């Protein structure tokens, strides 16, 4: 029976192959020819050195490439194993997201399309829960070529992210500072929120109060709350911060600002009941744009980063193997509601 060592050694006859290429392709050929199957252990580095005469660094580099392509996985203190028999894929990506809402869906759809069919993606969700986040990171560590992570604002997050190989991490959506240089394509909340509110100031002043809905301890970016408070102070805007919208409480002369779509739909339902006109009797400002907000009520004013562009740019960074530190611009889209 032909062994893995023989599959690697037979490639010595190809002059254009380096030792590294010979090792990687030999392992791939052994998997393709069913000499070894998914879940089975591969030879240790020391055994390969003895059998092949290759340098330790050559074998380690080869295993690193195979791990990056999702073909091999490393299990701590247990060695290397076949992770995937689909050897044609060029890379294996772990994508850890908050959850699937319309914005994350925009990101994923463009991310998936841009990467193309030969890149394997496993999608995980942490739902903003730090315990789930920690469990997921421990589960995926060492099994992927790239880790695309949307972090949680939490004291433990920095330490948990630094457990991953920093050169394989791409942070997206929210930003969490790390000690070492790392790749990210994120949005920015504090300066952009203040800029947007300042741009809307004259319109907001036509109403008698600005009401912001925010639940303390929620996943709402704290930078937005800071900017809201600074804006209302700087522009002398009468305001309130409420935990939630109570059905039936909509009032003429108010501007309602919320990050929660469910609050918007409740407000608009009450506007219809009380025959209040958007943009005239009340104002609404929403965070994160989506198709329905272009249409409903004649159009809702929103400010948002482009999640479609974010997904595309993260995918391009992976395919091009480029170092990237990028903030996706936040854009105000003015419509009837404000």
Automatic annotation (TrEMBL):
Q: Name the UniProt key words of this record, in alphabetical order.
A: DNA-binding, Transcription, Transcription regulation
List, alphabetically, the SMART domains matched.
Answer: HTH_GNTR
> PROSITE patterns this protein is in?
HTH_GNTR (PS50949)
Q: Recall the GO molecular function terms of this protein's record.
A: DNA binding; DNA-binding transcription factor activity
Q: In its UniProt entry, what is this protein called?
A: GntR family transcriptional regulator
- What CDD domains does this protein's entry cite? WHTH_GntR
Residues of the HTH gntR-type domain = 17-85
